Amino acid sequence: MDKASAEKRAAELREIILKANDEYYNLDNPSLEDYEYDTLVRELREIEKAFPELAAESPLRKIGGEPSRLFSPVVHQVPMESLQDVFSFEELIDFDRRVRSVVPAPLYAVEAKVDGLSVSLEYENGRFVRGSTRGDGRTGEDVTANLMTISSIPKRLKNAPEFLEVRGEVFMPKTAFAELVKMQLDNDEEPFKNPRNAAAGSLRQKDSEITKSRKLDVIIFNVQQCSGKELSGHTESLQYLAELGFPTSHARLTNSIQEAIEEIKAIGEKRHEYPFDIDGAVIKVDDLAQRRLLGSTSKFPRWAAAFKYPPEIKETKLLDIEVEVGRTGVLTPTAVFEPVLLAGTSVSRASLHNQDFINEKGLALGDIIKVRKAGDIIPEIVGIAFSSGNPVYRLPQNCPACGQEAVRDESGVALRCVNEECPAKISRGLIHFASRDAMDIEGLGPAMINQLLSAGLVHSPADLYHLTAQQLLSLERTGDKSAQNLLAAIEKSKSNDLSKLVYGLGIRHIGQRAAALLAKRFGSMEALMNADRTAISAVEGFGGIMADSVVEYFAHPKNRELIEKLKAAGVNMNSTVEPTGNKLAGLTFVLTGSLSRERREYEEWIERLGGKAAGSVSKKTSYVVAGEGAGSKLTKANELGIKVLNEQELLALLEN
Ligand code: AMP
Ligand code: ZN
User: Whose C-alpha in 111, 371, 552, 555 is 20 to 30 A from the C-alpha of 79?
Assistant: First the structure.
């Protein structure tokens, strides 16, 4: 590579990596997979090694040069290999020929290829002791705490061998994914692209509470290592794993490549019926001794192949583009097209995200477009099949609900209606306030809210608490019983925990989890309202964008007034969850060397007190806590002049 092209590529990589870091740290919404991220980081590192002069402004310096940013590395004793991809039945027949040149009469097991992320789970005497991601196949990341939250992963096995390592796929079921995306859209957040990204993003969380809320699941498909039990075949291993209590992959044993192909076709035909997204079928030589004979190339085993199903893409006509106003005022365009059958259901709408997306695809009304379902769930426009020749669609400059001129978002991508009185925003805001995850007011759905709005009975959430039976009875289709029920539901919502109220306010970037963290950390609305940016950004998992958003919200007199009114109406303003201190707010600790307690225990303690625990030493580190045998991190701390504490000093700081 010459200098000029290295420079160009490095600039591209930097941009992608910086964006990925921001998505990961600040927005909690990674669009790159871990593996992709790691690959890009590796590529950039190599360029910078070859051309050191290009390294000056590298983002790799910021992240301490560690591709795995949050978790400790785990070296896989048995490499977690990838699979060779095949896209046609001819290639499968070639595969069979290569297998037969080594083992003359193979039996093939065929199973669905789950589209999630690969993990290794280790059990000692039946106890789940460690779980890790695949990483680059040789070294992954320790995500034990997060895997512990997945209920289908057995934590204890009955009649287990002394040591067992299994491999499986962690995934987000389609229903959980659909729910999560709905919630993200409702919060005007950029949703996850597909269940695999959602699973990856949820598993690589520093806060395992978030992982827990994401409803991940697992399917185990291999024994990596096992001491104390002889296994001779794949299907036999799966049977054994099922007996131990694992949810396992269902493999069908076939006698010939023809039979295997039939099974692959059959899985392909029912692929949409699986509760999870599958992107192919895997064919594996069943006999483990034959597998050993076949061995592996540098990348993948010679005894298996992944058949990838072509994505289902349909052509249809783009009829209309509807523009809706979200709760935070974002104008979102939705494509309306002639209905097509995709993944077993009729589809006629797809989100177009924003003007940039429309421009990128060059969409115009009347075009014949290509559509598919991302992750088997979310309808998506892939591109244009035939252009109508009409001009590319432009979003209106004015809010379709209130007519006020829309303004460009700070990101430069979205258009937003900033009119505080916009009826669409008020309506969406009330719907959000009353929704189940927020104030949970039963009977107060979109229809009722719009009725109340048009009757002029409510303007803001605080008005809900002054509604009378008489007023409700004046509405069409509202009887005595439903009026009483609604009033009771409104009354009941007064005693909700603070976290539900904080979420219900609909502060930008503050989802349900973030609201719960805020409530837990600050304990009362009063304390939260008066917290400054530093204190808020010290909450684990909070980036600058989220902290700014909270501060900005409470800086607004109108919002403060709303809180006052809610308080006067008797709405609970306190957290029932024990408040945690924040005496370590703004301080970042790095723990290194061996300490007398588990490192994680100290990290959690630090976080409970409002501090941050980081994995690598940088200029931002406040203290390095060095135990026995501390190495490079201690050296780095001394180089940077960062204060070093011993365990006793840390305890003193935590305890008083
Ligand atoms: P790819 O990521 O396309 O290279 O495909 C290989 C990956 O498929 C492996 O790393 C596994 O994580 C995943 N996979 C999903 N289901 C299975 C299965 N039933 N057997 C083997 N691998 C699987
Ligand atoms: Zn408006």
Answer: 111
